[in-house]
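Researcher: I'm comparing several assemblies side by side, and this is the next one on my list. It has 1004 residues spread over four chains. Same procedure as the others: predict the full complex and return the structure.
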Amino acid sequence: MKERTKRLSLAPLLISNTKTNYRPMKPTTLKTPLVLVNLKCYTESIGNGAHRIARAAREVSDESGITIALAPLYMDIHPIIHHYDIPVFAQHVDPVEPGAHTGRMPLPAIKSAGAIGSLVNHSEYRLSVADIEKNVTALRQAQMLSCVCSNNVATTKALAALGPDYVAIEPPELIGGKISVSEANPEIITGSVDAVRNINSSVKVLTGAGIHSGTCVKTAVELGTEGVLLASSVVKAEDPAAILRDLVSLL
Amino acid sequence: MKERTKRLSLAPLLISNTKTNYRPMKPTTLKTPLVLVNLKCYTESIGNGAHRIARAAREVSDESGITIALAPLYMDIHPIIHHYDIPVFAQHVDPVEPGAHTGRMPLPAIKSAGAIGSLVNHSEYRLSVADIEKNVTALRQAQMLSCVCSNNVATTKALAALGPDYVAIEPPELIGGKISVSEANPEIITGSVDAVRNINSSVKVLTGAGIHSGTCVKTAVELGTEGVLLASSVVKAEDPAAILRDLVSLL
Amino acid sequence: MKERTKRLSLAPLLISNTKTNYRPMKPTTLKTPLVLVNLKCYTESIGNGAHRIARAAREVSDESGITIALAPLYMDIHPIIHHYDIPVFAQHVDPVEPGAHTGRMPLPAIKSAGAIGSLVNHSEYRLSVADIEKNVTALRQAQMLSCVCSNNVATTKALAALGPDYVAIEPPELIGGKISVSEANPEIITGSVDAVRNINSSVKVLTGAGIHSGTCVKTAVELGTEGVLLASSVVKAEDPAAILRDLVSLL
Amino acid sequence: MKERTKRLSLAPLLISNTKTNYRPMKPTTLKTPLVLVNLKCYTESIGNGAHRIARAAREVSDESGITIALAPLYMDIHPIIHHYDIPVFAQHVDPVEPGAHTGRMPLPAIKSAGAIGSLVNHSEYRLSVADIEKNVTALRQAQMLSCVCSNNVATTKALAALGPDYVAIEPPELIGGKISVSEANPEIITGSVDAVRNINSSVKVLTGAGIHSGTCVKTAVELGTEGVLLASSVVKAEDPAAILRDLVSLL
């Protein structure tokens, strides 16, 4: 997967892009393993910061062939798609139809900006089960990807039952830290992978929380998950490309 | 309640009450079928109104042998248990430990008042999945019953995966109306019953929303659920005992 | 004010109680200075704990003649009124009319239980301005007392403009601690007192956060406020009566 | 936007723009009267729709010299500023510092996108008083404009006490309708204008809710307010320029 020098367009990272045939086709799919970077709203990810990280993601993705997707602030969805040709998720989407909802973000707005999916129910933006189900269903109907965040084996199981594309397991106590969930609590990962297989085997599992090195990512994949969801270790890095390069180095 | 010849104690309505042996025992269980009346906070269920409904529930329960449980306002939990010896659920419990949480209601407070369980995630008080899971787990550990409310087949499935004692299906569009879910949409009930069986067969399903007659209750049981969750048709009735008598008449 | 031995009924603590004449009369008023103890939902204030604190409040109130009011959990409003004849506030009231609001607490429910008022907008249960205004207006119309919590001079000013009976200033960083606001930041108190005087001089100011001794209470009164709102130092005390006795000792 | 003879830059609409001197200068100010259009998230205001409305606003602003500002979705803040040189408000800003807040929108993000201010506490996105105060203060420190929404005279008074640049009065029952507040309830406007004058005369009042014609706008100004906040009548119009032209026609 290494040694590639040419700039990949978004197309090769997507197994199928089915914008033309709405209903019967499978929605957009991303190649496995997936490195999904949640930019949150750190000083380092606002404005030019987002471009800096997108540039790094483009570069390391080109070098390694590994899919690196970003979840930036709403205003950076379109610029990042447009300038860096990177798969972009929204960080959140509101479970409302377009209408009189001041300050909210309905699905057609993130789709129109170019997002191919959305995080749903991040531990920093919890939703009710009814709203998660609305979002997962609406994203599927719009042929977009849903990545629903869970916090333990039980909630992973519950959320897998809703049939999202991804469940990302992020034990809240590890988020933002330097201990990865795959080190601190591998059972939560293997338990979740097993539970998801029993409930709905088409749901992919991502390992989240505390991911900061190539070893974490390798372990995450070895434990049976199809990639990682991470944030601060990339966003707050002095050299995001160096960190991303390390993260994908053992895949 | 006047001429009752023998006053039932709470005990016969409970299959096992295991307050003495904390850990390994099964929690309190209610006899099937169950008629669970959510008093909400109608004018008719505040203060003396709650006593009026409790009296009716006691009377019809005595006559019929059917378990009728109530979910009153917090201040009526203890009086209803104490005066009418009726199984009482809280309408909500906050997923917090006792502490500095002004205006919140932690589990030990409803347990200390005598509740044997709690509604969780009612459509009028939605919680995040993480909080539902906390509540279900905490209620189980306290040997109390959890009755988690869902709104469609998909969310029923998700919530059953958390292993509560009951899932009550209440399509929001039918709540408070005169069309019962068993008439309007029996597929949501049978679909939920099937889904729950596949996910966790120890979870019991209740039919909610629009239940107003003995026929509704009979259909609910015939569709495979173990009782009903209802509110306005009893609470707002001129004669709650007459309505309750009708509700249990075909069981 | 000391040396009184006889048990006071609630009446002498209330300057006017106007249940009989609804409209034109002034609502219930409490004698100044006021010591208002928020029981929150600590292990020490659930169930029997609430009675223990109520007994202490009754005792110290009788000895000193100082009004000590309590804000217990909902289920303890009526028992405390009934057994200890103490002025009781709810910790929160929901800005809804009685109706289909599972798990919520409308004003008539706390009034029916015997509360003479309610805390509103505690820092642990923030409300929107529209909802605070609804609550303040509804409490006034029901001739009950509103005690709205603020967190700095600016919000004190804003909340005083709504015309509640009390504004209690509780800088969030001091809540639950051992440094009282009157020591840490007397300017916030004097600034608030001045601001309130300019906006609506009929609003009384209480000093909250970190109050733990007679000196704190004395300072609070000297800075121009009409009492204190406190919680943990009484609730978590081994001997609540001893603490309460110290709190009122320099008045 | 094609044949406009002279393209106005943003500068003439702003009385002072003080990006260069941070502290002592007055923040950005808009010329009075102000027509502020909240695009909400209607189908008509997502993606190209936002450009269509921005073009109309640019055109009518050029023709009439009246300041027309827009509050679009987050992703349209920068494109609208950039392509149409129109003063842009965010519809909401989260009262958080930049950091680990997935899906939230801190002030520096909207500022970096080019917004000159933000709506705060719209009736469709209510905030606590503490959070409104944080937002108003943070916007002032960033030399941006705050437009806080209120729903009646009492809340207008409370919110004016926080010293925002604008308070926009929108009785919830009139939002989205065809009856303007200035017709339905002129007393709420005159009462608010008086109340604001007494509390903080530097706060400007906008008339909101139901504004749909030049007469509404004229009345709003005659009642003492400095402009209007409106949404659906422009956003859902077949020809937004025609509606805007009518709205400013009697000024």
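Model: For your comparison table: Confidence is low (pLDDT under 50) at residues 1-9, 11-26 of chain C.
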